[in-house]
Amino acid sequence: MKEVELLIIGSGPAGLCAAISAASSGASVLILERSFRPGGQLIKQTHMFFGSESQYASHRGVDIAGILLKKLEEYGDRIELMLNSTAVGFYEDNVVTVLRDEKEYFKVRAGSVICATGAFEKSLAFPNNDLPGIYGAGAVQTLMNVYGIQPGNRVLMVGAGNIGVIVSYQLMQAGIEVVAVLDAAPRIGAYLVHASKLARMGVPILTSHTVKEAIGTDCLEAAIVCEVDDRFRPIPGTEKRYDVDVMCISVGLSPLNELLAMRGVEMKYVPQLSGQVPMRTENCETSIPGIFVAGDASGIEEASSAMAEGYLAGLCAAAKLGHVPGDFEQRRKEYLSQLDGLRSGPVGDRIRAGMKITELKEE
Asked: Which DSSP symbol is given to 220?
């Protein structure tokens, strides 16, 4: 069994920032990453971030991943990054079972654990939704921005949030036709600065629309869409057909935290946070002392919030292990202040409401 001081599961924005924060306090860290490449969602994001300088505003996600990985290197042997390593179980005494390279199975026991496992894409239920050519938006980003593969020639985007609109623009930059963007909601969820780019390029954005059916035998050949009423019920007679070879589904994310549930952490379904999430303190500690959570595993937000939350979780997890820097309280308050700023506005109201439901008081 491998013994470590602090184990971080996931090397996305939250996990990388947690490792940097904990190591800067003096803790030794092991990061488990199931992919062959660290960075999580950042490595597929080629658009520039909003936010503040603390969250690398005006940098592209893929560049932010590089910046964070360079910071990791500054701590040398204090941080170990283990790739192609999936945490498959979480048990008492902070024992985590790991499958590495699909063949090596071993156990890790940690003093404290930070779960930064991120999220998975939601899907939609409609006839033939399993046809080849129907992807999640994250899969399309991975194909294009990580592997350089064109997913198809004509795309229907389902979902007019930030990701759906940004990926639509990236598809068009790659020379792929986007025939329309549709959303069941009466208003788009994307920032206007993103949506206006598509409008200028002549891409129709159809609100109060949904997918009725996918058409095809061995792969996607067409999509039938229709209007919906104010209760999201299809309106007969409003059907339209789009001949496409790709349908990209961008209808949100759900927190990926089965490991926390397996360990027995107190969980609650919170719609404002997009799914089943752990109860936690202001310092990101769950109902089981020494187990922390950061990023989308605690509720779906932007990557900027995941980074700030990762720094906070890393600082507090290190302190739990006895590594308390002289500026601990100053740093803690600064990270909380950053999160407050990132959670301002109408979208932030929803996040804050969800956080109140999951709040655990410090003992």
From this structure: -
- DSSP state string for 15-63: HHHHHHHHHHTT--EEEE-SSSSS-GGGGG--SBP-S-GGGTTTSBHHH
What pLDDT, on the 0 to 100 scale, is given for residue 16? 97
What is the arrangement of strands in the sheet containing 134-136, beginning at the earlier edge strand?
A: 134-136, 246-249, 154-158, 177-183, 205-207
Distance between CA atoms of residues 258 and 238, nearest Å? 40
The two tokens of residue 133 are 């050519």
Helix (H, G, I), strand (E, B) or coil at 24: helix
Reply yes or no on whether the pLDDT at 46 is more than 90. no
Name the H helices within the chain: 13-24, 61-73, 137-141, 162-173, 192-200, 258-263, 303-320, 328-342, 345-357
Please state, in angstroms and rounded to a whole number, the distance separating the CA atoms of residues 165 and 52: 22
pLDDT on residue 137:
93
109: number of Cβ within 10 Å:
15
Rounded average pLDDT over 191-197 = 85
The dihedrals phi and psi of 9, each to the nearest 5 degrees, come to -100, 110
What Rg value do the Cα atoms of the chain yield, rounded? 21
Q: What is the pLDDT of residue 52?
A: 64
Give dist(CA 71, CA 117) in Å, integer: 21
Give the pLDDT of residue 302.
87
Give the whole-angstrom CA distance, residue 66 versus residue 312.
21
Give the containing element (helix H, strand E) for 175.
none
Under a CB-based contact definition with an 8 Å cutoff, are residues 130 and 213 in contact?
no
pLDDT tens, 65-97? Answer: 999 999 999 999 999 999 999 999 999 999 999
DSSP per-residue string spanning 240-281 = EEE--SEEEE---EEE--HHHHHHT--EEEEGGGTEEEE-B-
CB 300 within 8 A of CB 253: yes
Element (H, E) at 217: none
Instruction: Tell me which residue has tokens 């969602």.
Output: 41
Out of 13-17, 96-100, 159-163, 181-185, pick the least confident: 159-163
3-class secondary-structure state, position 351: helix
Helix (H) or strand (E) holding 90: strand 85-91
- Whether pLDDT at 113 is above 70: yes
